[in-house]
Design goal:
Farnesyl Diphosphate Synthase; mainly alpha; about 425 residues; 2 strands; disordered C terminus; 2 domains; two-stranded antiparallel ribbon
């Protein structure tokens, strides 16, 4: 049975329930039945390619949803549903479903129902991410995403002839609806979960919390762009809400809930996920300023031009203020938040960041957060395959052994300075 067949299977699921321990539980002693062997084969296939397995699930799901949309209305299906499906299927590293899957696998061999739930919920995470990115591009007025026109730009272009500004406004409005559709499809997947009531209720509660946290983090971003609030504590809070929780901790937690992992084990995994999720966001902040790895199509300097209140910029400003560096403060004031900032202005901001020592402090913080996540992971007994994969996945998220920041900071940071470094050490 292939991973894509698992989500559609109508087999008597009781024949596919293996005897297996949950993390920290007792070990079963019954001999494996043929159904157990089939399940082990299926799980091994997913283990080898979690993104591909989720992609298979998404392809089948979205084919059905797009067909339904075309039945409702051909124009709506062509303009909105088709674009949502292409966006969801067209890119991304599927990092959230990977953390969810390895949260499930922490307990050992899952049951067939748990495999189906993991693939279904992994697809739902990709759809809520589709919603977030489409809306994010509208809010940021981003022209492109993944090397292609952003959804709102693409839709405006379809009706641009003779419409001018009206087409731009239409594109933004239609893209908001496209994001809403992706979110609705994500919630449909959640509603279709077939799990025992305690697990299902726990998953729904965490899902609801995750959606609200994601929106809260995005709001802190856009509100910070307007108010230029670059508080260190606020920037860390936004990073936790929009990335650390949404990208790593909550997907891991959802996986542990599906599999019924013991509470102490789940707490340790979630704590490690929170640390690595923050490291992931801090690394992205650095990459936005100094350049992405080869093959990445994100525009460099987008956060600087939008004035996004990242921890990197907040820390740079705090250190400039502590040093009484009025020139650095003026460069930040005049360049950060300027949509038409040219490469020369961006280079000035880079120089200030490096000279303040903020870039080195952020790199050091990423290292500490990664070490924290490894300590949490080492503190509990989980399935050895899941442990190995989580170690690797967390390392990738933190950029360990990946020299993908284009410019090494010019010099190491100096001695610690006031409250800026106190927050940097958290």
């Amino acid at each position: 049975m292939r991973p894509d067949e698992a989500a559609r299977a109508t087999t008597d699921r009781s024949t596919l329930r293996p005897t297996r321990p949950h993390a920290g539980g007792s070990t079963g002693t019954q001999a494996l039945r043929p159904a157990d062997e089939r399940l082990r084969t299926l799980v091994r296939e997913i283990d080898l390619d979690v993104p591909g397995s989720v992609q298979c699930r998404l392809e089948g799901l979205l084919a059905e949803r797009v067909k339904e949309a075309h039945v409702a209305d051909e124009t709506f299906g062509r303009d909105i549903a088709d674009r949502v499906a292409r966006f969801a299927l067209g890119g991304g590293h599927r990092i959230r479903p990977q953390f969810l899957w390895w949260g499930v696998r922490a307990a050992g061999l899952p049951t067939f129902d748990e495999v189906v739930a993991a693939l279904r919920l992994g697809s739902a995470l990709e759809l809520i991410q589709t919603c977030a990115l489409i809306h994010d591009d509208v809010m940021d007025a981003a022209p492109s995403r993944r090397g292609h026109p952003a959804v709102h730009v693409d839709l405006a272009g379809r009706y641009e002839a003779g419409s001018g500004r009206a087409a731009t406004r239409f594109g933004e409005s239609a893209a908001i609806l496209a994001g809403d559709l992706a979110l609705a499809w994500a919630d449909d997947e959640l509603a279709a979960l077939d799990l025992p009531a305690p697990q299902a209720n726990g998953v729904r509660a965490v899902w609801a919390r995750m959606r609200m946290e994601m929106v809260a983090g995005q709001y802190l971003d856009v509100q910070g762009e307007l108010t230029r609030n670059r508080s260190l504590a606020r920037s860390i809070r936004a990073a936790y809400l929009k990335t650390a929780l949404y990208t790593v901790e909550r997907p891991l937690q959802l996986g542990t809930l599906i599999a019924g992992v013991r509470e102490a084990v789940a707490r340790a995994l979630c704590a490690g996920g929170r640390s690595i999720g923050l490291a992931f966001q801090l690394r992205n902040d650095l990459l936005d300023v100094f350049g992405y790895p080869r093959g990445e199509t994100n525009p460099v300097g987008a956060d600087v031009r939008s004035g996004k209140p990242t921890y990197l910029i907040a820390l740079t400003q705090a250190r400039a203020e502590a040093d009484g560096d009025h020139r650095a403060m003026a460069i930040l004031r005049d360049n950060v938040g300027q949509p038409d900032l040219d490469d020369s202005g961006l280079n000035e901001v880079r120089h200030v960041i490096e000279r303040s020592g903020a870039s080195r402090l952020v790199l050091d913080k990423i290292g500490r957060l990664h070490a924290q996540s490894m300590r949490h992971l080492a503190s509990v007994e989980i399935d050895p395959v899941a442990r190995d994969r989580l170690v690797r996945l967390m390392g990738v998220a933190a950029g360990k052994d990946a020299p993908d920041i284009a410019r090494e900071p010019a010099r190491r940071a100096g001695p610690a300075r006031t409250g800026a470094d106190e927050v940097a050490s958290t």
